[in-house]
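Quick one, tokens below:
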């Protein structure tokens, strides 16, 4: 099976965008498709974009490179926002349906901004460890500058700490963010579940880190978070956290997936659905 996709990144966090309005995949195993495409194109995740016909709005599903479906991905949502705006949507501000609910999104010149909603279930575990849910579960570790290799080693250890993960209600594993202060705001290094490595950037992790920084450092939002792949601006409005930053296209790719899959349904002419948005 051949699948066309668009490769994009948000602050270095890379994704393949699979447009299901052009390549319908109803009944197909997106988990197997995701792991196969990610292996071929060295990407952090796969975004399946479509239209939710019940809610009459764009929709996004996110799968990690290991084939695990996630409820949310901040930089993935920003890439989906740019793709929808450039391909289908006439307005700069609209909404996208996700596994974590409906999200308000927008394009501002060359930047994309998405509203992740409220930070949930915040708790301080110790002087250095804090937990918060920003669409997916995040542990925030307060400390001093740490190398990428050490972030990888300690991040994996905490991500695999069964008692810790069960304590915060996510036995499947939690993302781990190491943060320290700099002149602009905070520096973030994130070890991501599903990728099982330190990524160049993480949108929900940056939001979680900024939220915890307001608790620990007494710093008010907005906060600039600096990751290996670039910077994000985290703001707060009516209790909701938003992330803003750059996205870019890396080009068109083709992936090949072996296996037996149902025959796809007839492609949808998206022009008949433009009035939804």
């Amino acid at each position: 099976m051949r699948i066309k996709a668009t490769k994009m990144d948000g602050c270095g966090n890379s994704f393949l965008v699979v447009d299901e309005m052009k390549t319908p995949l109803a009944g197909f195993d997106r988990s197997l498709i995701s792991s196969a495409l990610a292996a071929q194109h060295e990407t952090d995740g796969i975004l399946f974009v479509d239209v939710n016909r019940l809610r009459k709005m764009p929709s996004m599903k996110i799968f990690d490179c290991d084939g695990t479906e996630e409820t949310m991905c901040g930089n993935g949502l920003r890439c989906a926002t740019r793709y929808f705006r450039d391909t289908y949507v006439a307005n700069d501000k609209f909404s996208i349906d996700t596994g974590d609910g409906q999200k308000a999104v927008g394009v501002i010149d060359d930047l994309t901004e998405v509203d992740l909603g409220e930070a949930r279930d915040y708790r301080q575990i110790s002087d250095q460890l804090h937990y918060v849910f920003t669409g997916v579960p995040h542990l925030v570790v307060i400390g001093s500058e740490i190398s990428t290799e050490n972030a990888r080693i300690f991040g994996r250890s905490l991500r695999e700490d069964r008692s810790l993960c069960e304590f915060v209600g996510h036995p499947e594993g939690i993302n781990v963010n190491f943060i320290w202060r700099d002149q602009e705001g905070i520096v973030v290094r994130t070890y991501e579940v599903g990728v099982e490595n330190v990524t160049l950037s993480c949108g929900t992790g940056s939001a979680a880190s900024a939220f915890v920084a307001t608790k620990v450092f007494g710093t008010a939002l907005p906060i600039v978070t600096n990751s290996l792949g670039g910077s994000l601006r985290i703001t707060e409005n009516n209790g909701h956290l938003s992330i803003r930053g750059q996205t870019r296209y890396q080009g068109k790719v083709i992936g090949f997936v072996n296996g037996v899959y149902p025959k796809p349904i007839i492609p949808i002419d998206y022009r008949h659905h433009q009035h939804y948005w």
